[in-house]
Specification:
- With 123 residues, this protein is mainly α.
- It has one domain.
- The chain has helices spanning 2-15, 21-68, 80-121.
- Helix 1 packs antiparallel against helix 2 and helix 2 packs antiparallel against helix 3.
- The two termini are 42 Å apart.
- Keywords: Membrane, Transmembrane, Transmembrane helix.
- The chain crosses the membrane at residues 26-47, 94-112.
Length: 123
């Protein structure tokens, strides 16, 4: 999905050759940045749903095994406690990745605005 949007951004850049180079670069950076952020958010949602489903399945296995007093079903990947801990670690790391990326994107935007301001003041 991300590769498709990168090629789409390159197509937009080629289509807008009549405008100045800074505008094309800003369009490309904005499109790629938006797609990276959306991909990270989708990954966060997918992993969170996956770990919640694993935790629910493991809880049912635990109840079934305790009710029948035998280990008929095995746990899926890891037990419920580890699933919640791993979910918290993955969620926190992805949120920090998004925050750090947005910070760098903000720095790029400030640099672009400063360059655009200097360019307009030089005339």
């Amino acid at each position: 999905m991300l590769i498709f949007f990168v090629f789409y951004a390159l197509k937009l850049q080629n289509r807008r050759n009549k405008k100045n180079q800074i505008s094309n670069r800003n369009t490309l950076i904005g499109t790629i940045s938006l797609n990276i952020i959306l991909t990270l958010i989708l990954l966060l949602h997918f992993l969170e749903t996956l770990f919640i489903d694993i935790g629910n399945y493991n809880l049912r296995v635990y109840r079934y095994n305790n009710f029948f007093k035998e280990k008929t079903y095995q746990y899926l990947l890891f037990d419920s406690l580890n699933a919640s801990q791993i979910l918290n670690i993955v969620r926190d790391s992805l949120i920090w990745m998004i925050v750090i990326y947005l910070f760098f994107l903000l720095l790029i935007w400030f640099r672009y605005e400063e360059h655009r301001y200097r360019e307009t003041r030089s005339y």
